[in-house]
């Protein structure tokens, strides 16, 4: 290769990594944007829907794993995003908002899935020689069960207006919890050395599990207390 082309190779090598990492940067912003979109459906929660509030049993036991899952966090992001989009793509629905806003939610979730997939593929390329851990498989299965309970609730309620109000609040809450877990992981990843492997029950001082409390909502405003949504 002639010297005059070497600078081009250097530029390509310099920019490949930042371009790949942008997928993950945009993903965090997209998740927060979808939290806002879902939040707009919470206004004007009808009193008649209170009787349908159910506990979807969000698997809080997976949070310690997620908060220390440095190599597989993007795979979890993709899992949550695809499961959420599947829920909002169910047919026979009675959306709790205008059709225009409903399409914005779906479009936002589609962007989230796309970015999560790109971020996940970048991660897979880096870790292709390492199989997924048992912790990841636990998280993967528990998330599947959680979203299945949500889907079953919608089916049993025949995709009613109230059912969608409740499900939208629950998925928004799920996104908030997961977004906080991603942030905590970024904050602690620099403090946890590469030789320190997280094992539940055998924690380093630098590996303390953070307790994430879901946001409380006052029912006297217009929205039911989050306790009914799986706390």
Automatic annotation (TrEMBL):
InterPro entries named among the record's database cross-references: 4_helix_cytokine-like_core (IPR009079), Interferon_alpha/beta/delta (IPR000471)
Record's GO cellular component terms: extracellular space
PROSITE patterns reported in the protein's UniProt record: INTERFERON_A_B_D (PS00252)
Stored Gene3D superfamilies: 1.20.1250.10
Main subcellular localisation: secreted
One family name in Pfam for this protein: Interferon
Any one Gene Ontology BP term: defense response to virus
Keyword presence, Secreted: yes
Molecular function as annotated in GO: cytokine activity; cytokine receptor binding
Keywords for this protein: Antiviral defense, Cytokine, Disulfide bond, Secreted, Signal
Compartments where found: Secreted
Signal peptide start-end: 1-21
Homology family: Belongs to the alpha/beta interferon family.
Listed name of the protein: Interferon kappa
Phylogenetic lineage: Eukaryota, Metazoa, Chordata, Craniata, Vertebrata
